[in-house]
Each structure stands twice: as C-alpha cells, then as structure tokens.
Design a protein that fits this description.
Number of strands: 20
Bound molecules: adenosine-5'-diphosphate, magnesium ion
Oligomer: single chain
CATH superfamily of the largest domain: ATP-grasp fold, B domain
Shape: globular
Number of domains: 3
CATH topology of the largest domain: D-amino Acid Aminotransferase, Chain A, domain 1
Number of helices: 12
Distance between the termini: 63 Å
Helix content: 25-40%
Amino acid sequence: MDAYPLPLARIGIIGGGQLGRMMVKAAKRLGCTCVVLDPTPSSPAGQVAGHQIVGNYHDPAKLRELAASCDITTFDIEDIDTETLIQLEHEGHRVRPSPRVLALVQDKLTQKQTLADAGIATAPFIPMPEPSPEAFAAFGYPLVQKARRGGYDGRGVSIMKTAADYRLRLPVPSLIERFVPAEKELAVLVARGLDGDCRCYPAVEMCFRPGANILEMLLAPAGIADDSAAAAVDLAVRTLEVLGGVGVFGVEMFLTRDGDLLVNEVAPRTHNSGHHTIEANVTDQFEQHLRAIVGLPLGSTAQLSPAAMINLLGAPGHRGRPVISGIAEALAIPGVCLHLYGKAATAPFRKMGHVTVLDTDIEAARHKAERVRGLLEISGENHP
Ligand SMILES: Nc1ncnc2c1ncn2[C@@H]1O[C@H](COP(=O)(O)OP(=O)(O)O)[C@@H](O)[C@H]1O
Ligand SMILES: [Mg+2]
C-alpha cells in the first residue's frame, strides 16, 4: 500500500493562461496545490490557484523563485528561458517535461530536424537563416515559411503560393517547407509517463478557417477511416519516443490526399485540441499531464461521447472588459459545456473561452457547435 501526505505535490506552473487554469482545476481535484508564474496579476490560472508569482517567463530570478516554492515545475507555454530551467534541473529541481525537450521543441528547426533524422515523416524542409527571393525560388513554391522561435497561433507562419507572395516573408531566422495540400489536419494527444509508458487520446480533426489560421471547430473523434486513426496514434507514439519527454504533448499532423500522415509540429504541453477531454473522456488531458509529471499511473484515455469544440474568440474591433451575449440561448441547448477563462480584457481574436458540445452523434454535435458559435459573442466595453 502506498501512502502520500496531502497535498500530493506542489505544482509550479510557468504561464497563467487558459491551459494553466484548467490544469490548476485538475490539480485541486487530484489533491495537489499550485503556484503560477505569469506577468499579468490575477492571470486566468493565478485566480484559481490562489497563489501567483507576478513575473516574466524569461526572468531567471522569478523562475528560480517558482521552482523553490514547489515540488515539480511544469509549463503551459513554450516561450520560456530554458537556460535557467536547465540550470535548475541540474541543481535537483524537478522540471517536467525536461527543459532539454522544451529547448529542442521550441525551435521549430531543431524540432523538425530531430524528427526527420529519426525517420518521422514531415514535409520536406530546409533551414532559412536569412530569407532571399533566390533561395525561396530555388526551393520552389508553394511553400510555407516558419519562424524558428516565438510563433504561436499562426503568428510565425507565412504561406506562399507563388513567387509573388515573397512579400509576405518573415524577416527572421526560419525554415521553409513544402506546402502540404492536406485532406485534413489531425492532432493526437499523447501522455508519456515517468516510466516511458505512452497513452494516446483518439485522433481529433482540426478544421481551420481557410487562410486565417483560426481553429474553427474541433471534432472528436476525427472523421477518418479506422486504419488512418490507428496510424495517427502510432505516429504520435513514435514521435514521443524520439522526443522522450514526460507529460502531455500535442502532435499535429496532416493527412494528405494520398492517405499519408506527416507530422506538422509538436506542442510540449497540453493542447487546444484536447479541451473536449474534460467532458468527453475518462481522464482529461490536464489530469493526465499531472499524473504523468507527479509519477502516478496514467489514466484511461477512452472517449465516452463524441464531441465538437469551438474556441470563443474576442470579436474584431472590441477591447476592454469583456461582455458576453447569447449565453442563455446557448446554454439552453442540451450538451453545451461552457468554459470562460476569466481574462480581464478582450482583444480581437483573443481566446476568451471555449465550448464543448457533447452528443451521441458527431454530426449533431457539430451542428449544435455551429449554432452556439452564431449565438455567443464576446464583445468589449471599449468599442469605438
Ligand atoms: N507545410 C504546410 N502545408 C500546408 N499548410 C501548413 C503547413 N505548415 C503549416 N500549415 C498551416 O498553418 C497552420 C499553422 O502552422 P503551425 O506550424 O502549426 O504553426 P503554429 O505554431 O502557429 O500552430 C497549420 O495548422 C496549417 O493549417
Ligand atoms: Mg500548430
């Protein structure tokens, strides 16, 4: 019989956004306490944790303060000073996943090189330290340029169909890769435990608004053939075996028109494509991440109900204190689960919350989610 004093563990979370907030909720259920490091006082995660260190993710002193105040340090973002984290790990602090994995993954070039060297299928790519029209033309269009660091939600990605699009280039160290005409974009969440045991969630389908790089809808499970779904899970596990981290990882993939799977990118953290697991799966991604980093057995990833998920984004043109409209009508629809992140101010396209819709039929769930998207609006007090 094992016995643990409570709290089970004090978890330090770098990043106080919505992922951290949902992690804190799971942590409390599991008998853990949390401390959050985030530059914005009363961050979404800090509000729930009740204990926040206000500071920057690149501030060595603040990272040190966080590590000193908890048993295990983890993160809900990628853009962190890994040098300090590696130093802290050296000194005996438990940082999970390992900052070495974070360092490798937070640079899209080293991430891709590591995966490609290990035989994981990706789009063909080359390093592009300094963009030039000649180098782009020599690689050939259509192509996709990606900033090595600091990009998220499509901010470090430029899709160029022809040489005329060269004006859209990112003037930063980057890589360029072949544009993949994908049939679908998929994601597989993988949890890897301290003992190397991997558990995957069923593959989900990410539907993006064409050209805008905004996740319009997430469908779980993905509407793909069983053998593709099995191959996606297999590819995600092989990807994690190459990277070797502990915790939950999101593996984004393309399913090509020929039925091939290519890994697009890996997020070394819980992922937007797993929000539905809170209601739809036996163990949600946040609890699973905590189980992994604390060293507890991983939970069942079985899905109990089909689900569709939409992000609630701040309306264009609106800023300031958020105002939500349509909430009563949306909540009257059976199967609608609303999550608001407690952000003090809205901004255009800012992630303010999400809605998961459960239904025994995935198409019905999708239709309800589309209705909810039409009903709910997050505007702001400051609207010129
Ligand atoms: N090689 C590619 N071919 C086609 N579309 C791509 C390619 N790479 C990225 N994209 C599109 O751009 C989106 C964002 O790219 P991604 O590398 O996932 O960056 P981010 O870190 O912003 O999520 C992808 O979800 C996909 O829709
Ligand atoms: Mg992505």
